[in-house]
């Protein structure tokens, strides 16, 4: 059964579920009124003269084994949301609950149980893998931080993890530069699942890969999810990729959610002009549709400019979410 909850800007709980019923079990991750502001300094004394609102009062929750897609263009706040959950970005205000426990202050503690249960797959895998370390040490690092295994047990675990992502035990003795981009990303996936986490924050995990390799990595991620019962927060700007991975989506723009719904809601009945703009940008592999797609994109671009004040306060700030159906919510006046 599919169920992801999103809490609207006004604090009400939105439940997106295939049978529209409340789940009896507790959500795995719950984020409440999350804000991440960065100070702007000015003047001779370098005082704080304002703030950049990277994430501005968003709330959502994810149930075990489910995938929520967080979608938006660069600068929308989606990656900052993932980093805040991981403790890599300082939270200005809000709460993060994991299995019902408030861990907002514990997200930065390296040895906390939360850090073991929540792992991350990074966009720039080349920077995420230490070039001076062999794959054996890269994958074994989180294991060494949380578990006490003998060298033999550790090697066996690493070999098993490499097999899960389609690599051989011999690859454990190689360095990251000896692999292709897709293989490096699979190594990143193996490291992320080394501690058998309950949730993985995947930040643009395939954006730097070509299409054939993208499909390969995404299929590995889906297979691992089914085998381990993982939940994903899948962050992407590509609605085509998200459609393959996610049961529900939250569309983010200007640091807030503009539309939230099931996969069917978003792709079959987009209501916000920004969502329609993103959908129009999905490439069509059929060249016969090129002229029709170009015309559609021009129409939506014109509508976006002409009706901007219908969807944004002062043409910029996002309105609060309002229900369109039981599963579909849109930021409207």
* CATH architecture classification: 3-Layer(aba) Sandwich
Task: Say what the CATH topology is.
Answer: Rossmann fold
Tally of strands: 16
Rg value: 21 Å
In CATH, what is the class? Alpha Beta
Helix content: 25-40%
Taking the alpha carbons of the first and last residues, their distance comes to: 33 Å
What does the overall shape look like?
globular
Low-confidence stretches: 7-24
How many separate domains make up the residues? 1
Whole-number average pLDDT?
Answer: 88
Name the CATH superfamily assignment.
Answer: P-loop containing nucleotide triphosphate hydrolases
Beta content comes to: 25-35%
**Class derived from helix and strand content:** alpha+beta
Largest sheet: 8 strands, mixed
DSSP helical segment count: 12
**What topology, given as strand order, has the largest sheet?**
8-9-10-5-11-12-16-15
Instruction: Return the string of H and E elements.
Output: EEEEEHEEHEHHHHEHEHEEHHHHEEEE
Description:
It is built from 12 helices and 16 strands. The protein is of the alpha+beta class. The protein has one domain: Rossmann fold, CATH 3.40.50. Helix 4 runs parallel beside helix 6, helix 5 crosses helix 6 (181-192) and helix 10 runs antiparallel to helix 11 (290-306). 40% of the residues are buried. Residues 7-24 have low confidence and may be disordered.
What order do the helices and strands come in, and which of them pair?
Elements: E1 3-7, E2 13-17, E3 29-42, E4 47-62, E5 67-71, H1 78-86, E6 93-98, E7 101-102, H2 113-117, E8 118-121, H3 125-128, H4 135-146, H5 151-164, H6 181-192, E9 199-203, H7 211-228, E10 231-236, H8 239-245, E11 248-253, E12 256-262, H9 263-268, H10 273-280, H11 290-306, H12 308-311, E13 312-313, E14 317-318, E15 321-323, E16 329-331
Parallel strand pairs: 5-10, 5-11, 8-9, 9-10
Antiparallel strand pairs: 1-2, 1-4, 3-4, 3-6, 6-7, 11-12, 12-16, 13-14, 15-16
Helix pairs in contact: 4-5, 4-6, 5-6, 6-7, 10-11
């Amino acid at each position: 059964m599919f169920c992801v909850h999103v809490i609207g800007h006004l604090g009400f709980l939105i439940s997106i579920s295939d049978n529209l019923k409340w789940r009896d079990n507790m959500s795995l991750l719950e984020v409440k009124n999350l804000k991440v502001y960065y100070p702007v300094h000015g003047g001779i004394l370098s005082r704080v003269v304002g703030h950049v609102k990277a994430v501005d009062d968003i709330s959502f929750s994810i149930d075990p084994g489910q995938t929520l897609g967080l979608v938006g263009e660069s600068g929308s706040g989606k990656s900052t949301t993932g980093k805040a959950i991981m403790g890599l970005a300082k939270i200005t205000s809000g709460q993060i609950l994991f299995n019902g426990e408030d861990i907002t202050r514990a997200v930065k503690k390296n040895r906390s149980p939360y850090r073991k249960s929540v792992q991350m797959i990074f966009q720039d895998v080349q920077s995420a893998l230490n070039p001076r370390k062999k794959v054996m040490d890269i994958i074994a690092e989180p294991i060494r931080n949380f578990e006490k295994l003998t060298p033999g047990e550790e090697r066996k675990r690493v070999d098993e993890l490499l097999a899960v992502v389609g690599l051989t035990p011999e690859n454990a003795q190689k360095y990251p530069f000896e692999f292709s981009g897709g293989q490096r990303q699979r190594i990143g996936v193996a490291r992320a699942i080394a501690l058998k986490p309950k949730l993985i924050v995947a930040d643009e995990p395939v954006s730097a890969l070509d299409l054939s390799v993208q499909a390969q990595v995404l299929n590995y991620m889906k297979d691992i999810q089914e085998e381990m019962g993982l939940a994903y927060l899948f962050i992407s700007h590509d609605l085509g990729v998200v459609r393959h991975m996610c049961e529900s989506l939250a569309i983010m723009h200007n640091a807030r959610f503009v539309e939230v719904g099931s996969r069917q809601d978003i792709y079959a009945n987009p209501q916000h002009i920004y969502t329609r703009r993103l959908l129009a940008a999905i490439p069509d592999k059929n060249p016969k549709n090129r002229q029709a797609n170009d015309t559609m994109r021009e129409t939506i671009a014109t509508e976006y400019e002409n009706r901007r004040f219908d969807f944004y306060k002062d043409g910029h700030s996002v309105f609060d979410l309002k229900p369109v159906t039981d599963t579909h919510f849109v930021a409207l006046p």
